[in-house]
Structure prediction request, 900 residues.
Amino acid sequence: MLALQQISIAYQRQQVVKNFNLNLEAGEIGCLLGPSGCGKTSVLRAIAGFEPVQQGAISLHERQVSGAGRHLAPENRRVGMVFQDFALFPHLTVAENIGFGLSKWSSSERQSRIAELLELVELTEYAQRYSHALSGGQQQRVALARAMAPRPDILLLDEPFSSLDSELRESLAGQVRAILKHERITALMVTHDRIEAFAMADKLGVMSSGRMLQWGTPDQLYHFPDNKLVADFIGKCSFLSASVTGPESIQCALGSVSGGDALKAREGEKIELMIRPHQVRFNPDSPYRARVCDRVFRGADLLYLLELENQEQLFCAAPVQSHYALDKWIGVELNLAKPVWFPADADHELT
Amino acid sequence: MHSASGSSRSPSILWRMLSVGPALLLALPVIVVMLSVLQPQWSVWTHLAETVLWDYVNNSLLLAAGVGLGTLILGTSLAWVCHHYDFPGRSAFEWLLLLPMAIPAYIIAYCYTGLLDFAGPVQQTLREQFGWSYGDYWFPEVRSLGGAIMMLTLVLYPYVFMLARNAFRDQAQSLLEVSRAAGMGPTAYFLNVAIPLARPAILTGVALAMMEAFADFGTVEYFGVSTFTTGIFRTWFGMGNAQAAAQLSALLTTFVLLLLLLEKASRTKIKYYYQGHKHQSQKRLKPSPVIAASLLTFCLLTLTFGFLIPLWMLVNWVWMTGTAQFDGHFLTLMWNSFSLALVAALLVLVLALVFAYGRRLYADPLVRLPVTMASMGYAVPGTVIAVGVMLPLAWADKSLDSLMQSLFGVSTGLLFSGTVFALLLAYAVRFLAVSLHQVEAGLERIKPSMDQAGRSLGVGPLKSLQRIHLPMMKASLLSALLLVFVDVLKELPATLILRPFNFDTLAVRTYELASDERLSDAALPALSILVAGIVPVILLARAINRESH
Prediction:
């Protein structure tokens, strides 16, 4: 449905996106995640037609909209966009804002479409208000309804929740996902907040320095990241230095772990083992000891920072009932079903 | 985030020509004046230096300094009173105290001369009460440098008042509380926090008032105080030396530009005065009844001297001279003034639109620089602009005329310099900044994302101009039109110098009648200017009111 092939984007002489690929199926919600300045917004703006591409091609429904010598004007792309600052028209009411892109529709069609959307975003009683009289969350929903009104082929969302307070973000992200799924809309969102990304996305991509690091389901990216950058960006984790000791076994400071067949022919090599906080368990009987360096109450669990005997540190998420004092030495063990590891010098490849 | 236009990154040739061409034309008068120093007229300069030049320099500097000090004290204290204290009538004074802005300085000068000179009601009453006659008593002479400083201060303090009050209002309640917690009393807070934070805004207001003082022609001419502006006028018309007038203009412009630079420097050093985010505004202090009464009296006295007395004088004069003045001649005067002001305001608006969109679409120094230069004309005195407009236009007329004579044997006469064209050019130079400021403020509210939202909703660039820009800009366009309209109506020196033969306006007629000592006859055109001048003040007051809610 949406296909980006090898696109590059530059401002003046500065390349911000390089050889970028992306495919999105009809009805899917995709999400680009990355730190600010990684080029994710530029990708979105190129799809919308606000930026030309230097190389590569963008196609929507098999129709090329951007490419070598071709640039379809934004108004002819059938692309809806929700802006970071919402960009609601202050001189129009909520209903008029939603109907802005429907000027070519017949009056009755337009009215029924506006009514339908007002109901969908639960703002029917606010139809005649002006946007400045609405709360941030309500403005956000008007912006969404306005972008969806002309039934665009694809909906683009640029950091749509970033101007809202954090509590509202998560609940609104869930609502927006429900609305998009209800209307069966293909959408691509850009954000730097992984909680938002998890709440919204069917497919998730992590970007860095204008490149796509990995594209997959949120579950895939969380449990099987392709590299340390993705691993780190997608959730809290620690890395333990380890070495490959046999065809299927890895030795680290917390004992040996059995790995997959990918380890073949890497015997003796130094690697780094990714450990998510929930993959570390307290066990008084374990021969491996760790010292409690820090402890943070997180409501559902406690997050410990532990230091091993070889001074390596790692995070551990434990039930709230566990109550180990600072500086206390306790037994710990790993609980890895499928270990994820990276070559020890992986840092250099990426930066 | 990136260029505002997105899709069109290279400036189109058409827009460039559209904005650079007129911008250069508008910058031309000041350039001509400044370049005139390259041909020094030594004989005239020696003569001037021996006779009046030091008077010009001294009086202009003293006038500007006096007005600067006067507006600083009056404007800042009124602003603090209205910001910090809660007394009866406070919210009304917030806009009532802006009203003196509606009166041009030369008109308030006529009013006070009528009130205070020997034949005026004040001295007459004194003589009757005490049985004095001429020479028996001392009375301050209003027609003096001191008098001019008073007159200008009375109508120019609102600049400082307005800017200082906005700056005080931007200071958060938490700032006051933190200072109080650190052991500062209200006076210490005022001196150590409020004033330093508001300083850039206050200085901007003072600099504006001083520029107006440098530019003043009507008041000092009427009071017989020799300043640069009257000197330029006399050198041009009395001595017939255009080059020397241009060189005097260059000297005056240098003073003004120096002031402008000083003001800019004082602002760039301190950028923290406006914090931008929303905060709780400061609570007002409830003073004791005695203090409240004296604050009220202070505000009331300022309003009385700055607005009510001149208004009362004018109304009284008009009442005395009766309806005889509302004749065909007065109607012609009104028609001339209003049509000229409207045409000028429309022209300036169109230019401002071209420049503002040029600057929005193309972040290109080639487009920006000439426009920035052209919008500096507001700092240049009207007399100087008139000289700068006259010289190149007279040259163009002469060249065209001799060309046409030699080619076809017809004389084209004064095609540019003797017609309304010269006036319109001068107004455009002087008032472009006023219009541009309004248009850009309106345009700023249309964020680039709104343009993009329109386009992603299937609305092309032309349609979005009609459906997004026009409705959102309506108020700004209207106030740009109105502000320039009234400024043109009030403008005196450039109109006086550049008007076509036998073409009178309200301002010119007021000046001529007052110069002939026919003050009561001058009252009707003067009152018309004043009434028109109130409209933008009300507009301003409403805009400020809206901001503070």
